[in-house]
Design a protein that fits this description.
heterodimer; A: OB fold (Dihydrolipoamide Acetyltransferase, E2P); 2 domains; 4 helices; elongated; B: alpha+beta; six-stranded antiparallel sheet; four-stranded antiparallel sheet; 21 helices
Chain lengths: ~150, ~675
Amino acid sequence: MRARRGFARRRVVYALLGVGVLAFAGFMISQALNTSLVYFILPSEYAQQPSQYQDRRVRLGGLVAPESVRFDDLDLQLTFDVTDGLATYPVRHVGSPPELFRENAGVVIEGRFSENEFVSDNLLIKHSEVYEAPKDGHIDIEALRESLQ
Amino acid sequence: MMSLGTIGSAAVMLALALSLYAIVAGIAGAVRRDARLQTSARLTALAVFVAATTAIVVMQAALLTDDFSVRYVAEQSRIASPTWVKIVTLWAALEGSVLLWAWLLTAYTAVLAVSAPNTVLRPWALVVMNAVQLFFFSVVAFAANPFIVLASPPLDGPGANPLLQNHWMMAVHPVLMYLGFVGLTVPFAFAMAALITKRPGTEWMRLTRRWTLLGWGFMTAAIISGGWWSYEVLGWGGYWAWDPVENVSLMPWLTATAFLHSIQVQERRRMLKAWNLLLIVLTFSLTLLGTFLIRSGVISSVHAFGDGPVGPFFLAFFVIVTLVSISLVVWRWDQVRDRADLDAVVSREGAFLGVNVLFLAMTFAVLLGTVFPLFVEATTGDRVTVGAPFFDAITLPVWMLVLLLMGVGPLLPWRRAETQTLSRNLLVMAATAVLAFALAFAFGMRRPYPLITIALAGWNLASVALLLAGAIVPRARITGRSLGEVFTRYAYEHKRRVGSMVVHLGVVVIAIGIVGSGGYRVDQQLRLPYGERVAFQGYELEVLRPFSEQAGGRTSAGVEVAVFERGERVTVLNPRINRFGDRQMLVPTPSVRYTLGHDLYLALAGAVDPNQDFVIIRAVQSPLITWIWIGGAIVVFGAGYALTPGDRRLRRRAEATATSGERPADAGAEA
């Protein structure tokens, strides 16, 4: 009988320990998720709520604005404007432009907004068959968003 | 003459129908204990294999003869591709991959039908295998038929996905992955058979022990080779990015690893019956869920598998498999319930249980991180990705605990540890760990995770040394033979035990490789003018000349970079950009100098412009990264060694002692 009671008590201790570990793990996981979520946004979405994305890692999608590309090959600094037709922001990227980088190309850049300049450390070219670069200057936002996903 | 596409489709339909017959005959034979029906089901398994093999041969024939009337060939192949690319094109896209998966499944089922011992479990296990097969052939026939005949075939196709044909490793990696998945289907099938026949004892896992280890070994090899492929092809100098495609291959591996450890607890202590059943169900259903996630396009991935029509099929099958198998466990709860209890936490089974919880926690975290973007998008409409920092933050501490337990567990006896020997062993291990920590610190390492990992590497090396010494020294003393002789004999007689030591050793080697390459890599873009030497991490790099070449439907443009070390030219690397046929996609192809200390990895960061007198190169120095591949090879070797057949006489003797040794423990548990 005593053995059985000890057994039951041990079960309770194990259960409490288990709950404690789970609660701790849950807390750690939610913390880690919160700090490492990277939002995908377009320039116009940033324009609506700049404070929400300030100093937070985001993926910014858009088109390389015409006549905005500068590349300093000594410092390896690439600057260009990214636009979705509604809003345009300057981008600073350390590194060489990738092979398919050109005006009106769809890009996804990863980094942070600092003030209203985007500092990027990762630049991806999206060469999509879905989205055609604009001919007349008009950009279909939804089609652009889909093509950059 | 019939076209290849028609023959292929017919073979698939035949395999589908035969699988269906094998299920019906198998169930009827098992329920009515009709030996003739059971034999018929077994022979049908062979026939399905023949039909599936026909389909594979037809597809290969179509690929090799450039028969573009077959849709898959038209969409994936190209006349100018080299022969090896045409062969591996079978698994370069969705339809072919599912066909290959189905074929491997039929091969395993056929082997089982011929070689599995004649027990009550066998007919039911074959029924389950055939049911899985039926699912795969339905997908091939109704959702992803590669044999559809085109009315107006094109003259040439676009060729296989450039990322895949850029490296021979891609010829290997998917096949290994499917061999692993299929291998783990066998214990799943026997587990289901055990539940159906109310025999959830150790029989099903003893019968499938080798299949489990085989599947696990293939999966490990697949993950390691996938990492190596990423490293050699993707051009960023890393091998693991916590991309969804990588995550879904890791999850079943984690649960399979847990399973591999926890079945030993049941074999020795008759505990964890339900746990083991649920683990193998989880492993199998995670392979299905993973396939759904990456093949349906619900999750975007850099590997861009795209969205196919098979998503709903895999999702439905995942739901059915999970529901049916969990209901089976619940239905048989009376047989499945454990009657024994843990005697002491500090015991072999305690350590195995601990490592199981850790692996499961990791699986959950990886799953959460992988599907979390789906939840966010469904609830808020925001598009998010979960970055690598999440996965690192969650899994690194758990890996540390795994390494800690990996050192202790094998030294602990079953049931209850004697504190005296244990504390002496722990003291030796702790001392080695401190020594390793101090050495790493002296070499200038300061970051916590790398330092802890190195300490744990020391801890584990000491553990393996103690294990071996404990096994060999007394034997040598008693027999008077030399240590080497005793070791050879011991390694021959205890293949599983020595194999597990080798695997653990390999894991330590991989951990060291990850510490070096993950914690101390240098990644830099360099402007290299032609004919000038530029310093990078103790090297000097000089671009000699640009080059371009054309071979096998591939156009490459790159530069020759001479690498100097202490003024001496050690090698010439050729980073390049490849283009395949008319495909738009460019594949930057890095060039690597492998050494045991560190790798020098060069990739073109931009175009090679003839009007420029310089090129921009991404240079990465990754310390110790080669040890990841070496460690992976050690792990796979260890698993393979444990699988090699032992001396039959020895095995029988071992089994006899194991069962007689277990009986008292079992009786005690029942009382």
